[in-house]
Write a structure and sequence with these properties.
The complex is a heterodimer of chains A (204) and B (230).
Chain A: H1 2-19, H2 32-41, E1 45-47, E2 50-52, H3 56-66, H4 73-91, H5 103-120, E3 123-127, E4 132-136, E5 142-147, H6 148-152, H7 168-203
Antiparallel strand pairs in A: 1-2, 3-4, 4-5
Helix pairs in contact in A: 1-4, 1-5, 2-3, 2-4, 4-5
Chain B: H1 2-11, H2 14-36, H3 40-50, E1 82-83, E2 95-101, E3 106-112, H4 116-121, E4 123-125, E5 137-141, E6 159-164, E7 167-180, E8 195-202, E9 212-220, E10 226-227
Parallel strand pairs in B: 1-10, 3-4, 5-8
Antiparallel strand pairs in B: 2-3, 2-6, 4-5, 6-7, 7-9, 8-9
Classes of the chains: A mainly alpha (204), B alpha/beta (230).
Chain lengths: 204, 230
């Protein structure tokens, strides 16, 4: 199960990783090279007869990242070539969706993504406990984020938990102090009672 | 007399003065909790919080790139064109502005990204959406017990102000809807026109996790002043 989940994350991130394969320099806005990559991302892919498209929030994350860097034409060509390579590979499988890829197929896509990552100094992070998947730059800044659950479901849910948050260590601390106080009060009463007994005995 | 002392010794043991008070406190606490808790769903959701294996980040550190501009300057009203090359696009987790709804008593720091650090210190824009002035959907999250508690006072026609380092942007609330958290019809992240969506958990004063969200929609009151060709 873990291997399958890991595969989901790896494959789904590959296209975005390839897109982000750029050297970061100061920049703002989307140039022609970056736009060509975004256009490529917005195209569909047919997996065993089923049409697939990258979710808009993932493309938006790529676009937002492009607003912070400058991609050259040469880099764009390399990135688009990498995207095409991943697409071609996926179209050659018998899977109709990412979840159906075998572990070997997922590993192949992961290798392609890793090649891109090693060039641009971006790092793929995956936290098993939370299912969180992210790509960070050399400074540790998040470039891409998603959850395995969202990726596996073919649709991301960007709506966060915005209810009351609970500080579990804080609750535990307050509870602990309460128990100590109650215990101290109990012990005090016991000792007080025994002292009264002694006084009572002495009086008797 | 001996019997009397025996009874007194028995009455001051640990059971009566340590264990029973603790049990009493626990029972009272649970009773109050059930009475105060508005619904069983809150209890269930709170339980899910306690038993969640997800790590919670209580860090309060973040980078602030927000430099308020002079309210009296022309740039402040977003009337003059700004070359996109002059804008510092925020990185994930950075505070880059403020969100203000005076009618709702909301004045919160605005972050790019909506992780725990952002939502503990203000309201956060989902990084899969966009930021003001770029002509796309802006999806903003905030906690219902802190910075977005004031959304319960939101009404159609009220003004929303977003201050950034590159200009001030004004929006008008057009709609308020209560929807399930997983209702994807609540937003359109592929929209090619600017629209502001603010949301928080609903009901506003409910404890624990709730499956519903209050979505407040707003439209821009000005055209984008960002020149994307420069």
């Amino acid at each position: 199960m873990r291997k399958v989940v890991k595969s989901f994350a790896t494959v789904a991130l590959s296209a975005v990783v390839a897109v982000s394969a750029t050297a970061a320099v100061s920049a703002a806005g989307i140039n022609a090279a970056e736009q060509s990559i975004l256009d490529e991302l917005n195209t569909t892919i047919v997996m065993n007869g089923v049409e697939k498209r990258i979710q808009p929030q993932y493309v938006n994350q790529a676009e937002n990242y492009f607003n912070t860097i400058e991609v050259t034409d040469e880099q764009a060509e390399q990135i688009i070539a990498k995207i095409d390579e991943i697409k071609t590979f996926l179209q050659g499988t018998s899977a109709t969706k990412i979840a159906e890829l075998t572990s070997e197929e997922a590993d192949t896509v992961a290798e392609l993504a890793q090649e891109a990552l090693s060039v641009i100094n971006l790092t793929l992070q995956y936290t098993k406990s939370t299912g969180a998947v992210s790509i960070v730059d050399a400074d540790g800044t998040v470039v891409f984020s998603a959850t395995v659950a969202a990726i596996s479901g073919d649709a991301d849910n960007p709506i966060k938990v915005t209810g009351s948050g609970f500080n579990i260590p804080g609750i535990a601390a307050v509870g602990g102090v309460g128990i100590v106080l109650v215990s101290a009060a109990g012990i005090y009463l016991i000792k007080t009672g025994r002292n009264k007994e002694k006084i009572g005995n002495a009086t008797a | 007399m001996q019997q009397h002392n025996k009874n007194r010794r028995h009455s001051f043991n640990g059971k009566n003065f340590v264990i029973l008070p603790i049990v009493f406190c626990a029972v009272i606490y649970l009773t109050l909790f059930f009475v105060i808790s508005p619904s069983a769903s809150s209890f269930i959701s709170m339980g899910s919080l306690f038993f969640s294996d997800g790590a919670k980040d209580f860090s309060e550190e973040y980078n602030n790139i927000f430099v308020p501009i002079d309210e009296n300057s022309s740039q402040a009203e977003s009337s003059d064109s700004i070359p996109v090359s002059e804008i510092t696009f925020p990185k994930y987790g950075e505070q880059f502005g403020e969100l203000i709804i005076e009618d709702c008593q909301i004045n919160a720091r605005l972050f790019f990204g909506d992780d725990n650090v952002a939502l503990n210190n203000g309201v956060g824009i989902y990084n899969g959406s966009s930021i003001p002035g770029y002509g796309k959907t802006i999806l903003v999250a905030g906690h219902n017990n802190t910075y977005f508690n004031g959304l319960k006072y939101a009404q159609v026609g009220q003004r929303v102000k977003i201050r950034t380092s590159y200009g001030n942007y004004y929006y008008e609330i057009t709609d308020i809807q209560i929807k399930q958290y997983d209702d994807s019809s609540a937003y359109d992240l592929s929209a090619d026109s600017e629209n502001l969506i603010m949301y928080t958990c609903y009901p506003f004063d409910e404890l624990g996790l709730t499956p519903q969200r209050c979505f407040v929609y707003a439209k821009p009151l000005q055209d984008s002043n960002i020149d994307k060709n420069k």
